[in-house]
Every structure is written in C-alpha cells, then in structure tokens.
Design brief:
The protein is of the alpha+beta class. The chain is built from five helices and 18 strands.
Amino acid sequence: MVAGSSMVLVGFVVKRGSKEAASTTRRIMDFLKSEGHEAVVISSPTDIADEMSFIVSNGGDGTVIHTARMVVGREVSVPIFPVNSGSLGFLAEVDASEALSEVKKILDGRFRVRSFNVLDAFVDGEYVGFAVNEAVLSGGYGKLLKCRLILDSYPVAFIRADKVIVSSPLGSTAYNLSAGGSIIHPDLKAISVSFVAQFYGSRVPSMVLPAETEVSLYNAGEEPAYVIVDGQLVGEKGEVSTGHSLKVKSSNRGFMLISTKWEFYERLSKKLLNNSKLAWPPAPSPAHL
C-alpha cells in the first residue's frame, strides 16, 4: 500500500484542544513534507480522499471512533493509524512520543492491517444508523427498560434493566466492559450483548455470540425506549415505542486499522487491568519486519 511509493498522501484527524496531539501532528507532517510526501488535516468527511494512503488519528479512543465513523460514512477504503495523545488510548498501540518512528515503519511497508465491521441498527426494519463500538437501547430518563431479547428470531429472555448494550469486538473494551461484559479479542468475529443495572432477581448474563447473530430488542414496557450509537442519541427515528423493536446486526461495511506492534495482551494488562509494574519480555517481531 505504501512501500515503494514515490509519493504518498496522508490525512490527519487531530483531537481538538490537545496540545500534545497538535505538536505530534506538526512533527509528523513536517517530516512527511520534507520527504516529498503530502499531508493534510481532515476537518470533515468530505476532506477524506480515495487516494489517501492512510489517516493518522491523533488523540484518544474517541478520536479513533470519530475517524472510523467518517471513513465508513464516506465509504472509502483508507486505513487508520491510531496514535494516543490522550490519557488512556486503549485502541492505539502507539503513544505520541513514538508516533514518528512508527509512521516511518508504515512508509517502509512494515505494518499489518486489521479489518473491522460496524454494527447496523434498525427500528422496525428501518435503518437508523451504524455503530463502531456499540448500539444501545435505553429506557427513558429515570425509567426502567423492559424488553424481550430475541436472537435470530428466537425469544431468549425478558430483560428489566436501564440499558442493553450490543457491541462489536472493538467496542467490547468500552461501555460493554464497564457494564460487566466480556473482553473480545479484536481478531475474533463476534458480537456481544450486555446489560446495565439489571433489576435484581431477574439477571441475565452477558453473552458473546457469533458475528452473524441478529439481536432484536422488543420494547415490552409502557414507555418508549431510545437508541444510542457510539454514545450519540439517534434522532426521532431512534425512538422505539411500546410493541416495536430495535434490531442490531453486523454490517458488510467496515474500516481498517493499521498495526505496527501486535501487543494486544500487553495493552490489555497495562491499560485496562492496571498491571503497569509487571516486567515484560521483549515481544518477538513478525518475520517480515
């Protein structure tokens, strides 16, 4: 994709208000231009061009999700290289201090690309949006959500909770994890269902299901429920009235993330499980690096 190219075009999505992200971006852009490449800042989806070799997403996990949503919305096959200039940045293998050296690796062709599918959400069969991390059905403000969980058209359980979360493998370490859901390795093709503040005495365990599973949530309560995708409330189309359903399934659309280190378990231990003081042996490099 990049190695051997005489000139590449690289896009940058930068976290607003982050001095570290802005500084890192300037260093990388200056380097690229000094090598005869082109570098542009992406402010909106229309700035993304098909001919871009890759996009540097510089910020935190929210910036990665924002970048992925723009790429999917534009329906382009431009991979994303996440750089962490935030506090956690679990989705990024690379921190800002080492970003430039890793970009040089990409230019030399020393990287791997991972593909991820988004989740499509439908209310009564009408498409209402997609999610990179998760689609959520929520009760109204201060209201308990009562719904039937239906998997591949088969009624499985009656749920009483604040919210039901349907997440992708990438989103499994976000809201899903905070609700007690399982971590799913990013290379697995799966879909997760978890629950927020279930009513005591009728708790249903979280589930990890095949990616092909269609998850439907039938509103069996007296109040409307609401659809949230990647933390954003869907508009009027996202209201699920009594007797109506939200269906979530894996989409044919997706995006790609560039990886230069392959250190998922180390990031898992240090960033999410707080084992930062453990001593780690040097990670073996892939044969082609």
